[in-house]
Amino acid sequence: MTPIKIFISTGEVSGDLQGALLVEALYRQAQLQGLNLDIVALGGARMAAAGATLLENTTKIGSVGIIESLPFVFPTLKVQQKAKEYLHNESPNIVVLIDYMGPNLSIGNYIRKTWLNLPIIWYIAPQEWVWSLGKDKTTKIVNLTDKLLAIFPGEANYFRQQGADVTWVGHPIIDRIKMAPTREKARSILGIDTDTLAIALLPASRQQEVKYLMPIMFRSAQIIQAKLPQVHFLIPLSLEIYRYAIEEAIKKYQLKATIYPTLPQKSQEILESNNLEILAGADLAIAKSGTVNLEIALLNVPQVVIYKVNPITVWIARNILRFSIPFMSPPNLVQMKSIVPELFQENATPDNIVSEALELLLNSQRRAQTLADYQEMRQSLGEEGVGDRAAQVILDLVLT
Fold first, then answer.
1. Is the pTM of this model over 0.90?
2. How many independent structural domains does the chain possess?
3. At 292, which CATH number?
């Protein structure tokens, strides 16, 4: 049987995770229907482990911000060129774009200029619906796509109002979280006593976050440790290349902390570290803004979300682009209300982080309200089977 050729394009660690869940679901649905698939992707090690043939690895060339993106311009252009060569030579049956706005707009524009009838699905659209930096990007996304698969209700409503053909499938993290252990099981796996006060620190999935976030996060941890000497910090690696910097920071701030995986990996990638175990076993998380915030919320762990970028980027965004967003972290975006504390840029100080962290740890009423808000948020993320629903829409579009 001639295989159905599917090309998937995404970037960064979170895109690799979402892409891997989709690849697994595509193969699962194809097997049920007796279909043969050939999936080629821009992504990372998780997607490769799920069965995709990796055209290029994009997990290490991602950034957020204007100044931050400059070192990755040429590597990204090189990846885009390779993707275009693949599309030209192999003629896939369908293209799936996952987030990754700039590179995916470039790939999508190339497809539309070259093959008008090649179906394009955008799964997990860029957060233009939150940023609202004018309608230009929205119009491009809508014009490029035959179908947009939304993960947030707000995202679905926004793009539907702009004229896109939208299907809300729910958030894929709902499927992933099923694999998480209970708090007791997680602590047993990690070797942590039941009564140990454990705080997860999640500083980085991008190089810029190592520079801007990790020092203030670890200084905050140092202050918390001085106030609560029984605390132990759990730090999952998103990529092996960050291990040395994190080890040095632990020494500098004299933290009682464990990095997971505990031993260096031969590969520079982390296929599956103990992320879910770490989060499930934690009493609190201090994390960068990203998909991981939803994982933390779905595991009922209170969290403080922080983010910081180059000051020049912030100045340009505020004064030239007039950039403003109601919220930064996914849990707050789902409900469009403040569920978790967010500390951005000048507000992301050790004093503010410590204050919010201690409030969530020691104020039982505040903690209970957070958990109640998490439950409300969970209802807006859809039902289990997100990956299978998305995969079925993709296959249906190929077969029609």
1. no
2. 2
3. 3.40.50.2000
Does 161 lie in the same domain as 237?
no
Residue 198 to residue 291: CA distance in whole angstroms: 21
Per the structure block, which two tokens stand in for 121? 């699905």
127-154: pLDDT as tens digits: 766 665 556 788 889 999 999 999 988 8
Mean pLDDT of 191-198: 92
Does 153 sit behind a cis peptide bond, omega within 30 degrees of 0 on the bond before it? no
**C-beta separation of 2 from 36 below 8 A:** yes
pLDDT for the residue numbered 131: 61
Location of structure tokens 């690799």: 16
| Pairing label, strands 197-202, 231-236 | parallel
Amino acid, res. 239: L
**Dihedral (Cα; 98, 288, 62, 67), 10-degree rounding:** 130
Domain around 390: 4-170+382-399
Q: Are residues 77 and 120 in the same domain?
A: yes
Q: Do 113 and 190 fall into the same domain?
A: no
Q: Are residues 139 and 269 both part of a single domain?
A: no
Q: Are residues 127 and 153 in contact, defined by beta-carbon separation less than 8 angstroms?
A: no
Cβ proximity of 135 and 159 under 8 Å: no
302-335 per-position pLDDT tens digit = 999 998 766 666 555 556 555 566 778 889 988 8
Please say whether the beta carbons of 63 and 16 come within 8 A.
no
Residues 393, 395, 398: CA angle, nearest 5 degrees: 110
Q: How far apart are CA 11 and CA 54, in angstroms?
A: 12
